[in-house]
Amino acid sequence: MIIIGVRFKDVGRIYYFDPGDFDPPQGSAVIVETIRGAEYGLVSLSRREADVSNLQQPIRKVLRLATPEDEAQEITNRAKEIEARTTCQEKIKAHGLDMHLVDVELTFDLSKIIFYFTADGRVDFRELVKDLASTFRTRIELRQIGVRDEAKILNGVGICGRNICCASFLDEFQPVSVKTAKDQGLGLNPTKISGVCGKLMCCLKYEEETYVELNKGLPNVGDKVSTPDGDGEVLSIQVLRQTAKVAIKKREKDESETGIYPVANIKILNRRPSCEQNCHCSACKKKG
């Protein structure tokens, strides 16, 4: 099937549409049919053949190429969003609601206004919706979002000194787990591995496949291993260098010496139980 890819926000998800007889170049504006009605978007993928059998949502039509009147309407809508944001903030304060307004979005045909907010728990905003509906004379939707979505909308600077990934180029969030940080040998200090949103940093996901591959066959800290200099216990691992620091006990004295060995020169004699079984690592001891 012939499709084009359209974005409705600068770093938003790409949605696919049937261009019909239109051939809009990348970066041009189009009016497309969506579940919310006609919407204004920018072409991010030009006309191409694609297999859409795995897509869950139906492929809707491109209604027309955006006209100067459409572009003027879009600019007007963005200005109205700023006004709606100010009005909503005033009404949230007047109703005494414990919620933080993050963003406002108007549909292209002005049939609906969507207010995005964050809150610590559930918020009874029924009276607020009635108040907003009577003010704007259109359909009102209040949508509670998470902290990751808030960070994507508001943008910010990460510990790397650059704009956060989700607001720069990531169009969809990928799940990131503590195991991902462990596989990369990172300390589990929340301030070191968390982004500005307070969740685990998205960039931990970028090299996950590489670390999973490099970790194959590596001994764990605490494993009993055999080295060219004798048997010992693994003290630490350098995943990228593929080396292990091993404490080797001397038979003559009740002492041990440490050495760094390539993993290829080490034979695992006895593996220490994993964290899920009977872990004695410092991280698990802190948990009690």
Could you report the average pLDDT, rounded to the nearest whole number? 88
Biggest β-sheet strands, sense, barrel: 5 strands, mixed, barrel
Beta-strand level of the residues, as a percent range?
Answer: 25-35%
The coarse overall form would be elongated
- Give the uncertain stretches in residue-range form: 276-288
Strand line-up in the sheet with most strands: 1-2-5-3-4
Spatial gap, N to C terminus:
57 Å
Fraction of residues in helix: 25-40%
Can you characterise this structure?
There is one protein chain. The chain is α+β, with helices and mostly antiparallel strands. It contains 9 helices and 13 strands. It has helices at residues 68-95, 126-136, 147-154, 165-168, 178-183, 190-193, 208-214, 275-278, 282-287; strands spanning 2-7, 15-18, 29-34, 37-49, 60-65, 100-106, 112-118, 139-144, 224-227, 230-238, 243-249, 256-262, 267-270. Strands 1-2-5-3-4 form a 5-stranded mixed beta barrel. A 5-stranded antiparallel β-sheet has the order 12-11-10-9-13, with no helix packed on it. Strand 9 and strand 10 (230-238) form a beta hairpin. Helix 1 packs across helix 2. The longest helix is centred in the N-terminal third of the chain and has 28 residues, at 68-95. The chain starts with a strand and ends with a helix. The relative contact order is 0.08.
Structure in a nutshell:
The chain has 288 residues and is an alpha+beta fold. Helices cover 27% and strands 30% of the residues.
Helix and strand arrangement:
Layout: E1 2-7, E2 15-18, E3 29-34, E4 37-49, E5 60-65, H1 68-95, E6 100-106, E7 112-118, H2 126-136, E8 139-144, H3 147-154, H4 165-168, H5 178-183, H6 190-193, H7 208-214, E9 224-227, E10 230-238, E11 243-249, E12 256-262, E13 267-270, H8 275-278, H9 282-287
Parallel strand pairs: 2-5, 7-8
Antiparallel strand pairs: 1-2, 1-4, 3-4, 3-5, 6-7, 9-10, 9-13, 10-11, 11-12
Helix pairs in contact: 1-2
